Every structure is written in C-alpha cells, then in structure tokens.
Amino acid sequence: ETAQQALDLYRTALNQAENKYEPFWKISRLLYYIGEHTEKKKEKKNTFSQAVYYAEKAIQLGPEKPDGYYWRGVNNGKFGESKGILKSLSLVKPIKSDMNKVIEIDPAFEDGGAYRVLGRVYFKLPGFAGGSKEESLKLLKKSIEFGPDDANTRLFLGETLLAMDETEKAREEIGFVLSLEEDPLWKTDVSSAKQQAKELLQDKK
What would you measure as the largest C-alpha separation in the chain, in angstroms? Predict the structure, then answer.
C-alpha cells in the first residue's frame, strides 16, 4: 500500500517536473519493488513491463547516467523470469548490454549492482544458453568489492557456491546474510534475503 502511495506521488511529480529523468527511473524502481511483491503472474508481468517502459523514458533523457539502464535491465530480467527462462532467452543480450553500460558509467552503482545482476544471469541460464556457475561466482565476487554488506549479493553467492558443491564457503555467505541488521531503506529486501537464506540451508540438509 505504501508503495502504491509512493507511486501516485511520483506520477504527480512526473506531471509537474521540468526534468522528468528522476521521476521516470524512480517509478521504474518502484514498479520493480511492487512487481516483486505481487503474487499474480499476469500482474507481475504487466508491472515489470511498465517498469521497463519508464526506464526507457529515463534513458532517453539521461543516456549518460546509469539509473535508466540499470532498472531497464533488472526489470527485463524479472519480466523474463515471470515468462519462464526458456521463453525469455531473447532478453539475455539486452540485459547484459544494459549492465555493461552501467559498469562503463559507474561500476560501483547500487553496490556493484550490475555485476550482481550479471552474476545472477549466468547462474540462472542453462549451460546450452551460455550459463556458467564459474562466471557467476567471478561476477558476484566483483560485486562484493563494491557492496560487501549487500544481502542479495551474499545470498546469490551462497546459492552459486552451493550449486558448485562448495558447501562450507556457501554456509559462510548464508551465515553472513542471517547476521545482517535490517536496513530501513530496504527493510523487506534484507528480511526476504534472510528468509531465502534459511530455505537454502534447509534444502541442503
């Protein structure tokens, strides 16, 4: 509900702002958040698809800034997940391209977010489509250089390590996630990462 209220505020700001770059990417980020917390598949797809649209608007206004590329790539990834990985292989190239653009502009953006997204892409992709656990590991470690306390990066790293049978190292990462304090800005992100970390541990038992 609060997210929906924030969305209304941003849309109002969009109508009033002379420079619409910031409202555009912020709406994209907020729609990502709403999409992540939506249960219905069709609604999810529509929300992420809208988010991509707003990110593209931001890119048109600020092609030299990272926000639009980052949120377009993230939301394209989520849109793809909601369609199913095999149906969304065509999105892989644009997502990689957006993340490489973010790295070119500012590799530290969103705690090394572009490396985190790329690491996740390589983890989720089947081998025949270019997926690679080793590449995932390398990129997630790079992401941690920029954001050592990011709950999702640590969680993803733990999952990649588990898939590579590096159980001890994976447990370290998962333990780190569980020990994190809630971040008031991304409170639900940290608690959601903790929940997923617990599930990972249970699956491995």
Answer: 56
